[in-house]
Amino acid sequence: MLIQGSDGRVADFRLGVASVDIYEDIFSPTISAKIQIVNAGGAIKDEQGDSVSLYEGLKIRSGEAVQIKIRGNSQTNEDIDFLSDPLYVRGVTNLIRGASEEFFTLSLVPREAMQNEYSFLKKTYSKDAPISDHVEDIIKTFFPTSKIGEIERTTIPHGFQGNQMKPYQALIKLASKSVSANAGDSKGGSSSSAGFFFYQTRDGFQFRSIDTLVSQAPKATYVQTEVNCSSVDY
Description:
By secondary structure, this protein is α+β, with helices and mostly antiparallel strands. The chain contains 5 helices and 14 strands. The strands form 4 sheets. A 7-stranded antiparallel beta sheet has the order 2-1-7-8-9-4-3. It is globular.
């Protein structure tokens, strides 16, 4: 794991990582991550050449790039790879500093979440186009280098004014108004089912209907238990 400070210096903080949590949530338009760091100090040198802590030495506050590579722990688990497309520090929380150690949590988001903060919709979107076309237009306009997963086609044309909305705000609003082209007739009859999710995974942005997500085959099965069980006994 590498983090690049605001001055361009890079530090490897693998030995200081206590935990890594990465989230892909259908209720969130962006991937997010939290990394808890325990640092005994002396991880990096400051401008005077003195050994200082990671937090103070790199001036970690917001916007620093973090590269992550975690190998899958089984043949079926894919690697978690954010080397070529790093995450960025949104904020630092739970900071505790002592005489010779420090504890803090890095909150991370991808580049798109940072871009969303200073992007705004300004144009009028045609009332003759379906919502799925508007979704593709917004993603390609404001996140042109981002991966796009599955954009499910919608029915019923819908137009709207940008009104200076941020891209994520508009996309979530459009998701609530969408009707799948696979769910009923083109006029949105009684067999149509409204409701989409706009979210991001490592495969890219997804715009999927609730019906499609519910009806698809599960990718994995997990068993919740309140006790630790060995793989041999289970």
